[in-house]
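In response to reviewer comment 3 from the previous cycle, which asked for concrete evidence that the modeling workflow produces usable outputs, we include below a single protein chain processed end to end. The sequence was submitted unchanged, and the resulting structure tokens are shown without manual editing.
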Amino acid sequence: METGNVSRRDFLKIATLSMTTMAFGKWPSILAEEENLLSSEALSRESTLNGSEIEKRILADKIPVLEYHYPGYTDKWVALPEDFFESQIKYLKDGGYRTVSDREMAVFLEGGDSGLSSKTVVLRIDQGAAHFDEFEKMIEVLKANRFSAMVFVTTGEQFSDDQWEKLADWQRDGDIYLGSHSVTHPDFKKIDLKTALAEAKSSKQKIEEKMAEFGVKTEVISFAFPSDSVPDNINFLKSAGYKFCLGGSLFGVKNDSAKPDLYLAPSLYPYVSRELLEITKANAQNNPLAYTLSGGHTFDEMMRQNITPVTIQKIEEVLKLKETYPEISFGKIKELPTTEEQKENLIRPAGIIIHTDDQAGDDFGRWITDKTYIGLESRKTDVHFSVGVDGVAQFLIMYKDFCMFTRGARGFGNYISIEMCGRDYNLYFDEKTSPDKKKIIELITERTVSLVERLMEQYDISPDNVLGHYQASASGKSDPGKDYMENLFLPFLKYDIFRNKQASIVS
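The workflow returned the following structure tokens.
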């Protein structure tokens, strides 16, 4: 098969070069008849608001609070490696989350009209004088991603004047909002009420005085209990002038979000067990987001269970639609069974994961989507699409700006999952692989690339967020093959994007 004057073999060599040096002819599409599957009915109802703007107009009825110490933190049982922290921050950035000030949080918890959106999160950092260098790097990461944090300081520790000045600078700039973590970090369940009140008042006063010393007028209104040890009586905090306080897991990880009319709000733990880290060392590649965290859920699952859900009803209310929010199709539709949670928690896709479904390698002429469907249904799981010799099949409902989350890639429910029929796609580069099998791999690859491009355009997905399953796993997954993704699929995708951009410029 020729690509203008460029053979497929030459394409594999050329496609990895800088896109600025490419000069290809047109790659003929096997899927010319499938390129306009987006329904005209859906387009006729298109709203001027995009998915991000819709999320901003859906008001929060609960807010997750993520409790951090510093990247690299470890204790006897759990840890927060640096790449875990960075992956979690990227997840929040890709998902369009925004952080809030302590005053905004106070208004929300008091039940007032906070105006906070469904994609609101609180980043809580408990900080002493130790590990200040790691803490400073953490703040720089947050600033680079336009996030702020509520920082709870143990004032009895020996902070240097330079450290207090940095805290004041960050407070002045809105990078942090200082709260109290007590004076001596006691167990509040084991001290008397008089001592507890003194700890609360003295730490608040110390922070306010140190900020004033560096020219920052501050009222400390939040308190985080040391070690999340919360006594039965917390009224002393109100008399000390605090608007709200934070504890640890109070209601179970599926319901540990801050809600209106709570004075004491729970926090979520984004840490991984050290035992699991040790077990997974043998894997060739591990993605931090695919790990089950110490609370029994992935980061994605933990966040989804604790944010305000996006539903069809809420979308229709925001858009003031008189008719149903439109579904769209990218292939022949054959819906898999889904859960109520999937229907009531729509996601705005942040990326795309490419899988293979492990159909028999010697039966490549019958790599069809019906077999994918049967396999997924029998395992009570799902993906959004399957691509085979029979075309593109859509298994989950897709909407203009949102879709259902998938159960097919734990930790990446906010990604669109695509199963390519078959297995061993790395064998494309094996000289022993038959020409007929290579043609089938080429056919499915082109169809999948075409689908990926349309999804990227529809949901504003970056090419950097198109991953092979092996890149989105912590269980040793290898599909669809590292060699295949790096040397065929991604070069083909980048080439096609480049070609389409060139065509749009010419037209």
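The longest strand covers residues 120-127. We consider this sufficient to address the reviewer's concern, and the full set will be provided in the supplementary archive.
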